[in-house]
Amino acid sequence: MIGSQYSRCKLWLLAVSIFALGCVPNPGRLEGNGNADAAGDMTADSGSADVLADTAVGDGLSDAVIGDSSGTPDGDSVAPPDLDDGSAPDVPPSDDSDDATSVPPDYPEGILGGPPTGPFKVIATVEVRNDTSLIRQREIAFSGIPLAKIDDVRDVAKLILVDAQNRWVQAQFNVLSRWGGALGTISDNSRPIRWLEISLPTSLAANASGTFELREYTANAPLANDPLSAAIVKDGSLYRVTTGVARFTLNPYNPALIELIEVDFGQSGTFSTVYMHKAGAGPRMLTGGGAVVETLASYDTLAVDNTVSVDPSPDDVGSPDFEIVEEGPVKIVVRVRGHFRRPQERRDCTDNNFSDATDPFGFSAALTFYRGSADVGLLFNFRNECG
Q: How far is CA 302 from the centre of its chain?
């Protein structure tokens, strides 16, 4: 049930338009909406874009779903036909969660089939908008939405997304903050989630939008069988990223990170090599004097002079400053930090009466790998640490 606090928040979100479609090159918007059917409302669902059924006890009217009666929460997202949960009429909590006709999966579009059975409650709606005149085909939308404290959502393992056709959509949920907790408490399931990042694959026509239902099940949602899901595994000193259609080999000691890219062009299980790291690939700096600072052909150590080098980790000086920032079935985000190391460019950037010259030019790079894609998103930050 969505409380009135969240319903008011819905209007604020739409007015400010703070969400963005997280794909390149043309951003749209991802907006989070609370269900307006709060307890005690006097009308049924009537909005043309509303995919949520009445879930609040105390509705003045039924929603015309077969087997339901006025004032009874049903948990359904679409009108008949409905599956029987063993009670006629339905009694809360209903486990009617799918149409009588099975829903086939469409993995390229991110459709996993029909939603799981079992009792659930509707937490919110999520609207993805394409504000451009271009068709957005099989791209990844992601952003954060606020959750009401009263909903008491604690564990992302119980969450799924369902589209307007009552199909289970592959999605990734990451906790950004929790009610009453500091930033370091995001893994503390004893506190309700306050901000939740949602990532999902979607296809939208020009100037169109799609609406999705965020559900919380009583039990953990089953693991989806998705051949295009993203994953990352450690392999010795390297990491392997798979996206269903491509494989990436990452070397945390290499400031370029990517050592090898292989792509399955025919979706036949046969991968072809399309990229191998070589000297000069990756971060590169041209100094004012015309000197070039670029990568080596291979890396297995840190802090190498006259080249681009990964920094030692703040937690372990013998390990590279490399981190898996986000990991899930929709996207993998990794981050590396380093410096352009050239003794002639070093300077004392401090005012502490000690001579402690350092390399002034640093960088950080965040790479994002997407489900069902051979594309890589790159966010590169160049720093003048003597500025």
A: 31
Q: What DSSP assignment string belongs to 346-357?
A: -B----SSS---
Q: Give the three-class secondary structure for 101.
A: coil
Q: In this structure, what token pair is assigned to residue 291?
A: 């000197």
Q: Which residues neighbour 2 within 8 Å (Cβ) at sequence distance 6 or greater?
A: 34, 35, 36, 37, 38, 55, 56, 122, 123, 124, 148, 151
pLDDT tens column, 84-94:
343 334 444 44
- List, as one string, the DSSP characters of 103-115: ---BGGGTEEESP
Parallel, antiparallel or unpaired: strands 322-326 and 285-286: unpaired
Six-digit token string for 60: 């003045």
Residue linked to tokens 């300077």 = 347
Whose tokens are 């401090």? That residue is: 350
Element (H, E) at 15: helix 4-16
Q: What is the pTM of this model?
A: 0.74
- Rounded CA-CA distance 9/34 in Å is 7
Per DSSP, 345 falls in state G
Interval 126-153: pLDDT, tens: 999 999 999 999 999 999 999 999 999 9
Write out the two tokens for 114.
Answer: 């029909």
Give the C-alpha distances (Å, rounded to integers) separating 96 from 47, 76, 151: 22, 6, 21
pLDDT at 212 over 50: yes
CB 34 within 8 A of CB 50: no
